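The passage that follows is intended for readers who have already worked through the single-chain material. We present the inputs for a multi-component assembly, then the predicted structure in tokenized form, and finally a short commentary. You are encouraged to pause after the input and sketch how you expect the pieces to fit together before reading on.
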Amino acid sequence: MKAIKIVVADDDLSLQNLYRSALESRGYRVWTACDGEEALEIIDKIGPDLLIDDVMMPNLHGLHVLDIVKGTPETSHIKVIMLSALDDPNTKEKSFQLGADDYIVKSQSSITEVLDRVGKVIG
Amino acid sequence: MAKALIVSSDSETRFTYEKAISFQGFLVRTANDIKKALMELKKQWPDLVVIDFDSHASEELEALRALKPAKKDLPVIIVTDLKKANEKKQACVIGACHYLSKSESTLGDLIKLARKAIK
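Having made your guess, compare it with the prediction:
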């Protein structure tokens, strides 16, 4: 069976590594990006199944990355889970308006919960 | 490869539009004001121009008016929050114009319009 490809975009390297290890332990293939610009480059190159997209990132805000991915016909099928440090209802609403498939507040979700949400989104 | 020129005085907007449009396969050049855009246009005609237009740019835009007869069909997307029709008209000095409201549109709307404009 073909492994699911996931891009994790977050400028927090420790969180990036944590997500990478956890996702790889579930059999997913993982690529990481430190900012929005790098995330788009990787997406263009590998065509992932899922993007885990931090809202606050340098070099292209996470919401802009979401907007570009969902607004491009060739990548609009890619599932996107938004990650945020803050439980801000406006950002959450905007994310879903732009086509996000889920929205996770970092401080309110354990890594096990994140993995469960990834499983649900991928289906 | 289709070529696009993006004009905005705001570096963040310029960068964001550049990434959104280049992700569609366009070769993108940028200019931070209309005078620089004019120089870029003289070097090589793009297939699409995107202008992030604010009222301060109106005088500089006059400089582009001279080019209108040379490239009547050039698609130009104006992203603006100008409300008045005559200001919008002033913004559209070259090519075939399309408008997007800066506050109400998404990058997805810009992408859709850009792809449609060069078909």
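Commentary: Residues 3-117 of chain B form a domain with the Rossmann fold fold (CATH 3.40.50.2300). The helical segments of chain B are 11-22, 34-43, 58-65, 85-91, 107-117. How closely did your sketch match?
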